[in-house]
Amino acid sequence: MSSDLHYKTATELTELLADKKLSSVELMKSVIDRTKAVDGRVKAFNSYDEKDALAQAKASDDRRARGLSAGPLDGIPVGLKDVIAVEGQPLTASSKMLANFVSPYDSTVTKKLKQAGAICWGRLNLDEFAMGSSTENSAFHTTRNPYDLERVPGGSSGGSAAAVSAGEAPLALGSDTGGSIRQPAALCNVVGMKPTYGLVSRYGLIAFASSLDQIGPFARSVDDAALLLGAIAGHDPLDSTSFKTEVPDYCLELAKRKGPWRLGIAKEYFGEGLDPEVGAAVQAAVEFYRKQGCEIKEVSLPHTEYALDVYYIIATAECSSNLARYDGIRYGHRSKEATDAIDIYFKSRAEGFGPEVKRRIILGTYVLSSGYYDAYYLRAQKVRTLIRQDFLDAYQSVDAILTPTSPTPAFKVGEKAANPLAMYLSDIYTIGVNLAGLPGISVPCGFSKSGLPIGLQVIGQPFKETELFAIARSYEQAHEWGSRLPAL
Ligand code: GLN
């Protein structure tokens, strides 16, 4: 790992803090300095509150001095995707609709972070309302890939991935509806993990597609991701879809799992559209596991070809319903031109939402409309069940499945902006995991000849996060691609 403070892993920082070789205020200052030095180019942040972050760091140092440290995350900064509510802080979803909105309450994950003593650090850019794969749909600015500023960081949690990659936060949270944590993690050479649906509370997460959305960690190592997940996971009575399950000490438990594992390769994930360099890097990872004594088995996920279509029916249907609340009446943007109540709805939504969000609302309204509901929405739900069943069938004979995270390395800013279908294909390998409600992780797995990061996706079984982390970590520890830092 790097000798720079701002590039240390949370696990390393925790030790320095515990040994009193470092104070949280010093750490926070170094992260702020780094952010000021690079964020003009990377543009990961929508906003940050320097004073507030330093006050949180000071409080952490005071706790530690009194012997009251709250645990391994105490004093460690965590950046938050700008869809996760922090009381008294801006919450914009990178949309004009919420440009001036300040959250009146904490999300459950925010509360848990605060209880763990972590510093809630800065609001990170995204595609508006988490709809996109490049952050180009942000109403404010496009975040840049730290490995090549002409390229996208991926999305929608591009700000979270870029911040961790560029040394602007040791940890960050994102949300993943169809790939929005794993795909940007792959493009920015960091670890990104989507938990099993129901493991992390969605209370206080701005909703995109509620049956798919999950909050999850970005980190510089698998151990760090496990540490952060442990802090935010667990049942929450405020989210009726949150699951009653024990949350183990992932870090402790994962270190005990050494394999060998039975790992599945699905041919459906290595077909047309896969960049040859990405394919080769993932094949090399498969060979690594084989040499470690893992049993590599071909598995079939025959309904994969429908995943993208099913996703763009279900996700848009749910988004059209979720985004109905932005009516210009109760909160958010209200048009100054409006003359009566109906006019407020129309004009506020016309002015407040960007083109991709409007496209999704229109598609979603269409698939839910009477006469089309059965043909689209209902059918998509049935195929969704088949997609989930494909995975469960495969898990009869394997412990996890290995795939590329993204079909290509980072693409150029503007390259796919005018072609929504090309953009949607960025998530071809991640979307099925959300439809099936499974956990998935992306770990750095090499670089293209032109120096762009490549990610390996490991897809796990429901609520078997410990196993998933252990499998990813066994690869990570033998390779350490993550320590190849961007030249910023
Ligand atoms: N890129 C996908 C979309 O645009 C997934 C986004 C996400 O996971 N939030 O819908």
What is the CATH topology descriptor?
Amidase signature (AS) enzymes
What would CATH call the architecture?
Alpha-Beta Complex
Number of helices: 16
Characterize the main sheet: 11 strands, mixed
On the 0-100 scale, what is the average pLDDT?
A: 97
Bound molecules: glutamine
Strand order of the largest sheet: 1-3-2-4-6-5-10-11-9-7-8
Assembly type:
single chain
Q: What features would you describe in this structure?
A:
The protein has a single domain, classed as Amidase signature (AS) domain (Amidase signature (AS) enzymes), CATH 3.90.1300.10. 38% of the residues lie in helices and 12% in strands. The chain has helices at 10-18, 24-42, 50-65, 108-115, 158-165, 182-187, 222-232, 250-254, 276-291, 307-322, 341-352, 355-368, 374-394, 420-424, 431-436, 465-479; strands spanning 45-47, 77-81, 119-124, 171-176, 191-194, 214-219, 262-266, 295-299, 400-404, 440-447, 453-459. An eleven-stranded mixed β-sheet has the order 1-3-2-4-6-5-10-11-9-7-8, sandwiched between helices. The model has no long low-confidence stretch (mean pLDDT 97). The structure holds glutamine.
